[in-house]
Amino acid sequence: MQMSQTDYRVIVTDEESAAAERTIKIGLADYNREQAGYIDTRPLLVHLTDAASGEIVGGLAGRTSLGLFFIDLFFLPAALRGHRLGTEIMEAAEAEAKRRG
Hints:
The protein is α+β, with helices and mostly antiparallel strands. 35% of the residues lie in helices and 26% in strands. The protein has helices at residues 18-36, 85-100; strands spanning 42-49, 56-65, 68-75.
């Protein structure tokens, strides 16, 4: 069966869809596994915590996969910016990504 462009629609939306995200994530993982022959995706998180309370106040959320380091989210409260904490977070994440290869 031959498909044409008219068989599909491109939809742009601001509505989150767990089903759509799952389809994209699984499809990409399957494609990467086919191309590379393996899959090694692992979360990589760096938390910035308040020393007194232990509360997480910022940090980085990302992942490593197929020799690459991806940053999904990075947050540092305004009052803590300009004190090299962001640099420390990035350096810690990069060091772990390098350790993973």
